[in-house]
Amino acid sequence: MAAGRPTIRLSLSEEQRVELIRMVEARKTPQAEAKRARAVLLSAEGCDDKEVGRQVGFSNATAGKWRKRYAAEGIAGLTDAPRCGPPRTIDDEKVADILRLTLETKPTKGTHWSTRTMARKAGISNERVSVIWRTFGLAPHRAETFQLSTDLHFVEKVRDVVGLYVSPPQNALVLSVDEKSQCQALERSQPILPMMCGVPERSSHDYFRHGTTTLFAALDVKTGEVFAQCKPRHRQKEFLEFLRHIERSTPSELSIHVIVDNYSTHKTKAVREWLVRHPRWQLHFIPTHSSWLNQVERFFAKITLEVIRRGSFISVAQLRAAILEYIEEHNKNASPFRWTATPEKIFEKIEKYCSKLD
Predict the structure, then answer these.
(1) 220 beta partners
(2) In this structure, are residues 179 and 299 in contact, taking their beta carbons and an 8 Å threshold?
(3) Residues 80-86, mean pLDDT to the nearest whole number
């Protein structure tokens, strides 16, 4: 054993030794505390501070510090003591005042508070305001939109549509159908610069317009497969053509339940007459202002993010080809969206919104 300054040897009981060994070997023990426990065990075996420091990775002084702490306080002495830090300069009353101003008032010239305007109002630094807002989850610069449905049959329609999602009828195909209109073929005015290490992909902010197309899509809620067509417009004529496309593409022995929104094209006389001639079809209308209830909208968000938004297309034909190619690839490994919201959860959430408006 290496020579060093003599130290008072620790005497450990069997219970203390087992406790320290468990502390060293336990996976959940913080690394620093495990090293301190090992240092105490080495000291108890007769190692001096220099030898303990060499084996554990401490300085001589640090090894001696934890040996003395354990001798005085036991296992509790191996944890870090709480650090007091500087004294508070903002008391609870001041914090409460800032929260009240943030939640209940607006600046004289503006729609919302910023950290700087609130700092001037409260007489503290904007950094302190930022800390208080983060602590209480406040973000005045952010705003979201909402729209409550005024449909008189809201409850019945929600139960009907959610029932199709979670418990579809036997021998039936449940399709979530809608149109994504005004898909623009935008060509960036300059070539897109590819991503490099440390540099994101970059594209010019200006572009050339080459026209639009409308994507008609029907999402099979059971399999995630998508039936799709691109049309120049989204009138009654195009909607009926899409229904005929689905009619030809699905087994005739299956009944078809279609979930659609309240767009006027879906309710025309010609559409109603076509449905009468095809009795296996049944349309289920979601409540007004409830597009979130139509699962195909989730697919539209996905294709917008992954194909349309960052693309550069020199023609409508190229845009259509990109959309249909993406859907073809999607269908090779299609998987459904998992619907988890029960009607009761939906009604409970809407009730909370209504209570805030009272």
Answers:
(1) 175
(2) no
(3) 73
How sure is the predictor about 91, in pLDDT bands with cuts at 50, 70 and 90? confident
Q: How far apart are CA 234 and CA 247, in angstroms?
A: 19
Q: Specify the CATH number of the domain 157-353.
A: 3.30.420.10
| Nearest CA among 240, 241, 260 for reference residue 174 | 260
Give the residue among 301, 269, 270, 347 at the shortest CA–CA distance from 178.
301
CA dist 214 and 234 (Å) reads 6
For residue 199, the 8-state DSSP code is: B
Contact 259, 176 (CB under 8 A): yes
Residue 29 is classified by DSSP as S
Q: In the chain, what percentage of residues exceed pLDDT 70?
A: 97
CATH 1.10.10 is the classification of domain 14-78: yes
Distance CA 52, CA 20 (A): 15
Tell me the pTM. Answer: 0.69
CA distance 58 to 35: 9
CA distance 116 to 122: 10
Cα separation of 150 and 94, whole Å?
42
Kindly tell me the sign of the dihedral angle through the C-alpha atoms of 180, 184, 185, 191. negative
What are the boundaries of each domain within the chain? 14-78, 92-135, 157-353
Structure tokens at 340: 């988890």
164 Cβ neighbours under 8 A, 6+ residues apart: 174, 221, 257, 259, 284
